[in-house]
Design brief:
- By secondary structure, the protein is mainly alpha-helical.
- It has three domains: 80 residues, Rossmann fold; 61 residues, Helicase, Ruva Protein, domain 3 (Orthogonal Bundle); 46 residues, no CATH class.
- Helix content is 59%, strand content 7%.
- It is built from ten helices and three strands; from the N terminus they run βαβαβαααααααα.
- It has a three-stranded parallel sheet with strand order 1-2-3, with helices on one face.
- Strand 2, helix 2 and strand 3 form a beta-alpha-beta unit.
- Helix 1 runs parallel beside helix 2 and helix 5 packs parallel to helix 7.
- The longest helix has 15 residues.
- It comes from Solenopsis invicta.
- InterPro entries: DNA_pol3_clamp-load_cplx_C (IPR008921), DNA_Rep/Repair_Clamp_Loader (IPR050238), P-loop_NTPase (IPR027417), Rep_factorC_C (IPR013748), RFC_lid (IPR047854).
- This is Replication factor C C-terminal domain-containing protein.
- GO terms for molecular function: ATP binding; DNA binding; DNA clamp loader activity.
- Keywords: ATP-binding, DNA replication, Nucleotide-binding, Nucleus.
Length: 204
């Protein structure tokens, strides 16, 4: 098995070097396949993907390729057509929480329950994002709670959204506009994030 992170070595050199060298050598057991795993393959250049396509064609008898990507649109059609696609749904909270608790205990971090919920909400079912935001929040604040998590990623707090919805329902247009603009400037919030959260709040 050869496992590579394609985002570290994006160019054609890694394909013509390590991958070709591994694929071109035979196996001791005729019935066994070699396995090449390429993580974050969507970071590879077009030339590298074309070179990989030719290797897949040539060594398909004894090698199987597992190509993992975040954005399918960044994988060239010629490479997509040679693969069977498997799409994975975002992880559920009950799948993320045990691993999150394990990391918190192993690293001896101070994390509140609402901090965990904030990590779940903002991750969108992405375990890697949960760990990344957890790490960033801890380094930035030394404690992981709801407010620190939201501030770390620059996302509007639920309390901010509740305030905005209240303004929209009760204040005049001009007053509401000024208050939202002031909140954006004070907290460095993105309008898209605000609109997304307001939409979610209204739908609920």
């Amino acid at each position: 098995v050869l496992e590579l992170n394609a985002s570290d070595d994006r160019g054609i050199g890694i394909v013509r070097g390590q991958i070709l060298s591994f694929a071109s050598t035979g196996t001791m057991y005729k019935s066994k396949f070699k396995l090449i795993i390429l993580d974050e393959a969507d970071a590879m250049t077009i030339d590298a993907q074309n070179a990989l396509r030719r290797i897949i064609e040539k060594y398909t008898d004894n090698v199987r390729f597992c190509i993992i990507c975040n954005y399918l649109s960044k994988i060239i059609p010629a490479l997509q057509s040679r693969c069977t696609r498997f799409r994975f749904l975002p992880l559920a909270a009950e799948q993320i929480m045990p691993r999150l608790n394990h990391v918190i205990e192993a690293e001896k971090l101070q994390v509140t329950e609402n901090g965990k919920e904030a990590l779940m909400t903002l991750s969108g079912g992405d375990m890697r994002k949960v760990i990344s935001v957890l790490q960033s929040t801890w380094f930035a604040y030394g404690a992981v709670n709801e407010e620190n998590v939201y501030n770390c990623v620059g996302h509007p707090l639920p309390s901010d959204i509740n305030s905005i919805v209240n303004w929209l329902l009760n204040d005049s247009y001009d007053t509401c506009y000024k208050k939202i603009q002031q909140l954006k400037l004070n907290k460095g919030l993105a309008l898209q994030d605000i609109l997304t959260e307001i939409h979610s709040c209204v739908v609920k």
